[in-house]
Amino acid sequence: MGRFISVIIPNxxxxxTIETCLEAVFSSRYEPFEVIVVDDASEDGSVGIVGxxxxxxxxxxxxxxxxxxxxxxxxxxGGDTLFFTxxxxxxxxxxxxxxxxxxxxxGPGVVLGGTYTPxxxxxxxxxxxxxVFINYSETRNAERPDYVATHAMAIDAGTFRRxxxxxxxxxxILEDVEFSHRARQSGCRLVMSPxxxxxxxxxxxxxxSLRNALRKSLYWTIYSLARGDLLADSGTxxxxxxxxxxxxxxxxxxxxxAGFTGRPIxxxxxxxxxxxxxxxxxxLIRAFHRTAGPTFALAATLYYVAVYPLAVGAGALAGALxxxxxxxxxxxx
Length: 333
Description:
Largest sheet: 8 strands, mixed
Distance between the termini: 39 Å
CATH superfamily of the largest domain: Spore Coat Polysaccharide Biosynthesis Protein SpsA, Chain A
Number of helices: 12
CATH topology of the largest domain: Spore Coat Polysaccharide Biosynthesis Protein SpsA, Chain A
Order of helices and strands: EHEHEHEEHEHEHHEHHHHH
Number of strands: 8
Strand content: 5-15%
Number of domains: 2
CATH architecture of the largest domain: Alpha-Beta Complex
């Protein structure tokens, strides 16, 4: 029998996904485990859905955020190992087995991470783009990950409690990145397993994809400026994405220059900028092709180069302005 795993799921208005999420968890072939759902003062019907499953439901009286919900779940867990995931993530039948085996071999001073399956639960171009992008970005430096995400994070329960848990009163997102950085500074080792996967429910369309990119870029910029590592090559905030955004901005400047001066020759460097961008991001392009073939790879590459950086760049600019205006994350000592 393996280590007893407590699966901890924060839920905030997750009626659209929580049933599918819990069905997936309880399809696990691993034993023994428990499931703790911490409801963050939901205002939809998700609590009633959770009540139909043999899990422990903890209800917060007021909306307090995902960090607080996860900490409450951990404080009320009975497992040797904590496995954090989200209400829109679907564990595979072997996810817990992989996590239990890997942690048993690594010892208690490890924060183990997984990633999304390349193909998401829902069909659609923008969801597929996002799932491939995250899978590739989080696993390309699996030997030296900069962070472990809470869509699939496993950690020894004692190690988690000694760490102080997730930062509360922090930014609305990125609490897993901050936790990972703090855990590493305290002597923990981050381990990323590409085989440890959950399938995500995105339901992204065009505007949803761009809104997600803008929001994540905004808060990541604030956090990175506070840490002084804005240019770090970090998972989905990769050097490749930053080059993509920089190339897009440079291309816009060249277009403006050509229009202002009336000299089309100013556009000549754009081809070189695009070529450098494609070369630098060739691994991601291969991942697009490997997952869904040449037609998708071409469309995804065009979206990544010509549209996606506009939202990421706008988010970064907004984040920098907020930071300069005094919006700083509350980082634990």
